[in-house]
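Input for the complex:
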Amino acid sequence: MMSAAQTQSVRTGHVTRMFIYLFLLLSALFYLLPFFIMLTNSVKPLGEITGGNMMSLPEVFTLEPWKAAWSSAQVGVEPTGLRPYFWNSIRMVVPAVFISTILGALNGYVLTKWRFRFDTILFGLMLFSCFIPFQIVLIPMARILGILGLAGSTYGLILVHVVYGIGFSTLYFRNYYAAFPTELVRAAQIDGARFFQIFRRIMLPSSGPIIVVCVIWQFTNIWNDFLFGASFASGSGAPMTVALNNLVQSSTGVKEYNVHFAGAILAALPTLLVYIVAGRYFVRGLMAGSVKG
Amino acid sequence: MTRQGETDFRTRLQHWLPKVVLSPSLAMVLVFVYGFILFTIYLSFTDSRILPSYGWVGLENYSKLWRLSHWTTSLTNLGIYAFLYITICTALGLALAIFLDQKIRGEGALRPIYLYPMALSFIVTGTAWKWFLDPGIGIEHTMHLWGWESFRFGWIKDRDFAIYTLVIAAVWQTSGFVMAMFLAGLRGIDSEIMKAAQIDGASNFNLYRRIVIPLLRPAFLSAFVILAHLAIKSYDLVIALTGGGPGRATELPATFMYSYTFTRNQMGIGASSAVIMLMTIAAIMVPYLYAELRERK
Amino acid sequence: MGFLDIRNVTKSYGRVEVLHRVDISVEEGEFLVLVGPSGCGKSTLLNMIAGLEDISSGDIAINGRVVNGVHPSNRNIAMVFQSYALYPNMTVGQNITFGLEMHGVPRPEREKAMKEVAELLQIGQLLDRKPGQLSGGQRQRVAMGRALVRNPDVFLFDEPLSNLDAKLRVNMRTEIKKLHEKLKTTIVYVTHDQIEAMTLSTRIAVMYQGHVQQLGAPKEIYDTPANLFVATFMGSPAMNIIPAQVVMQDDRPHARVTTRDGSHAMLPFSQANLAAWDGRDILLGIRPEAITDPDGADRKSDNIVALGNHIGLTEPAGSDTFVTMTLGGRDTIARMRADVSVSPGDRFEFAVNMDKAIAFDPGTEDRIGP
Ligand SMILES: Nc1ncnc2c1ncn2[C@@H]1O[C@H](COP(=O)(O)OP(=O)(O)O)[C@@H](O)[C@H]1O
Ligand SMILES: [Mg+2]
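Predicted:
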């Protein structure tokens, strides 16, 4: 009895366990269903969707919707497909992730290892900036981007995402470095290492996991952003999410559901891949994002 | 003896370097976040229309705002949506977490399935749900094909029910995250407490009701705060799923702000609605962050 | 003026002063131990010597040079930390030579210095490992190697042994002492363990609440503690502190103490100056080893006094037996030979070595001189 209680913290009866498994499996179906629908219907000819059953597997397998979504579908006014917008997103995401991660790492390093008066307040200000409703900055941001000549450009979006990504990247590195022994920094100081040497030689080599967490989080967030993209880069400079929305919402012609689904998966693919490859780090980032470190 | 009270230059530089390194980020946050917030607050007291203009009108925008049925509808919608979204996400997340914590075979496979929607854009999931819920081709159509002729599920086209489709899609998106938060909480509970309660003869139901769930309080609080602020910020999903319609049935403050500012050219009113959104979120987040940062010190 | 001078140094965090006017002068080759309970400011003082914390006021000079504001790496000091603070991403060899590298020492010289230190500490076979692959004792050695390789003016140790298990701690303690005897480098060593302080030091500074309570040779600290705190902190079991009254008898000051049955015992002091306290209350301090059974009493002492009292508890501890009695209303511990035959409740004639007894002013808690 005692030993059983040790191997299994809570003992449950057979009927209860059946119920639990049933519940968990049905939930899994619920979560998988939308993706299943997107996937199956993206490889069906249009007629099979409108005339047939959305839930059934394709009778005719075709990659035409994918090709159309990628290179020929009508997005806005031009029949370019999503391809140019995909590259827009890449051009925006890579520098924005890189810069915000570097800045976050430096900030976290300063805020934990070179503490000074009011540093917690400064960090609080940065942290709160992650949670503001971005509507509050849309108007002045549009003005500033206009003044800087960055309106509608990828550079403008990079700036925006760096600014509003710093809070989270700083949070990650600060929490991580807070647990990093300060004695190591002191030992390095006595050994004669200076500010940047300590960062490069002592802190960074031990920061692998949190760099992965931060990069994944920023990548996912920036890739998935819609509000800033729609507000500041709606034309040919638009990112993938905005283009997808334009594709889906376009009111002209017949609704090509299969192309929409293929486009949606294309837009989801990068973040989904990251999730599949490094889901563990993604979850860590999510959890740290709920502030408890 | 040589007296060297003077700090050498390099050491003095080292003293300033941390602050120098922090300052670009700080400057960006101060200007682009707090400066912009002040600017928007200022605009909300002006007669700005298409472009910012600096004629002071006092509280006029706010009084106009509260007289707009469009705005009050948005708020009512937000109330319904946020309440259901938070409640269902929490309940579902908690149930999944507790069930997953029963030494479930295949936990490693199930967890990522519950969580993957968090990695997707609301625009993507909105697209999926939009067509799935569409009575013409989606679930209703499928049921008819499967022989359930009388099945009706046209919420997304129904003014009275469209808001619930938002809830369905949003719950689908975030409940896995809530599950992960609760699961982390559960795994953090000292297993000796559980053993002690079982030796005291607590049934499973009582074990959870009296011991475990009260111990999860911090997770409940985090979940509430995160979900509440997500609900208030909800924008993408509405755009992708319903576009605010039918009619105004799924307008939320976030979509209201956008359309008043950028399509209806009522920037003053748009700004005042953004200020109210910020206040609401600040009322939830500031005490929470304050408590978190103090704890850590 | 010494080799390492700490002159009137204070430290404040915001408005809270955590170190008050510390004044210590250390001669070249000395082994100074800073000892005190956790939170008393030992590490803060050590860190100020190292340059890791700013000095709020006062001066610190090393080898004749005031080092206030000088970067830690330019003070010619080396430090061994409690957690060892080995860089986890570097091998043992890289850990040891990192400081030399930062100081621009060319590689061949670094290698040579590393070899020497590795030989001295017998860690040659560990040089290619990462710290994560070492045992606690090995890490400790590497941390010392990293300090030694710099050939500094002063070694600073911050509780270097407190993460080791008891047995290893004793071994390493001996090794550190041997190393000091061999190298004769000045050492400042922080510990909260009074036995470490006694065994290692040439001088001890006992600290409490940011004040240096007493600075002196180990024997001086042990035999003539400056105040109640030092008396009870140094020594294990702690010194017995017994409320007593000074009474003159035969022109000699005596301590009048109450035994368990309420009767009074008279214990003659060896210090004549206590006559000035005639009729006043004092606190009598007697170390447990100064209360024994009559056969175990110190033969060199000429002031052994018999004291009849009931035995409370007996605690055999292998080499000794500790016997508790009630004196002046307090539990009082006597240290006896292991084979003494005593049993709880019996009346027993204790032998008290009053040569070793001291008295404290109950108001100021300072020892009553000379
Ligand atoms: N950064 C700091 N800010 C405020 N108080 C501090 C700080 N560091 C140490 N203290 C305080 O200074 C006192 C001495 O600390 P410390 O030197 O670490 O003690 P010890 O090493 O003797 O245990 C403690 O009361 C501690 O709370
Ligand atoms: Mg300490």
